[in-house]
Amino acid sequence: MRPAARRRRGCLSFGSPFGLVGAILRSAHRVATRLFAQEGDGRIEDRTVDRVQLARTVLGAAATIALILAYNVDPNRWEDAAYGGAAQLIVAPFVLIIAAPLVIIGFIYYAPPHLRPHLRSRLRAPLKAVGWYVLTLVVMGGILVPTALTVDADDGKSWWEYVLLVASLIVIVWGFPFFFMASLYSARSAFNSAQVHPMLPPVLTLTLVWVFAAFSLIGDGMPGGPPIAQFCSTLGGPLSVTAVSLWELRRMRTRFGVTLRS
Asked: Which residues cross the membrane (predicted)?
């Protein structure tokens, strides 16, 4: 009998550069989903809503590109749009940390008195997610800032400088992808707020999108182009997100029997 042929290790094996990068990204993704995408039993899985949200995102991106091509003559428009999207992704969790407590307090106050203790008892999951996010920032800053301030490439390094360099390398290689995914999942799940009430994520999404619209209008002003293009560029995104969120809330009420006071 012929001996079994040895399996060749592909380019995505752990020993290859691509395989190592994939392993790092999978590890960061696994931890990020475990901490920031665990929405518990309160989350209502509705594939129709997911498809509509995806379609809105794609159409919104296409509309943004069309408006940029048609009316924006700035040669750096693509770079500005990319930086703006990345900045919103990073800033979104911080806006939620500030705004979400006010929304949740109002949400609990609006609930019937006999339900308020139950809702307050379920705040542990969002608070835990916020704590992990803040801890991530503290650890990353506590490693990178001392490394940048104390480690000098020209002088001889002591043992603690080597420890800082190794820790900084771990933060850059694993911590940055983890922080990006944590920001993405935190913004999407609103720090696991569905564990308090299924309607909290769309309500917080409404708050978040209008806060960003106000910041964009105050910081950048009205975009170029005719009035209809200015209206679509400034209010098209928030209005479309609002429409989808209100439709999601109505669908929860009519299809699943979930209301703000239940």
From this structure: 54-73, 85-110, 130-150, 162-187, 199-222, 228-247
Structural tokens at position 168: 């900084």
| Long-range contacts at 77-82 (CB < 8 A, ≥ 24 apart) | none
Largest separation between any pair of C-alpha atoms in the chain: 79
Cα separation, 202 vs 40, whole angstroms: 16
How many whole angstroms separate alpha carbon 70 and alpha carbon 109? 47
Report the Cα–Cα distance between both ends of the chain, in Å, rounded: 70
> Which tokens belong to 19?
């395989």
Burial string for 76-113 (b: 16+ CB within 10 Å, else e) reads: eeeeeeeeeeeebeebbbebbeeebeebbeebbeebee
What does the pLDDT look like over 40-79, one tens digit per residue? 665 677 788 888 888 887 887 777 777 666 665 555 555 5
Angle at 49 between CA 205 and CA 238, to 5 degrees: 35
Q: What single-letter DSSP state applies at residue 183?
A: H
Instruction: Give the CA dihedral 9, 12, 14, 18, nearest 10 degrees.
Output: 140
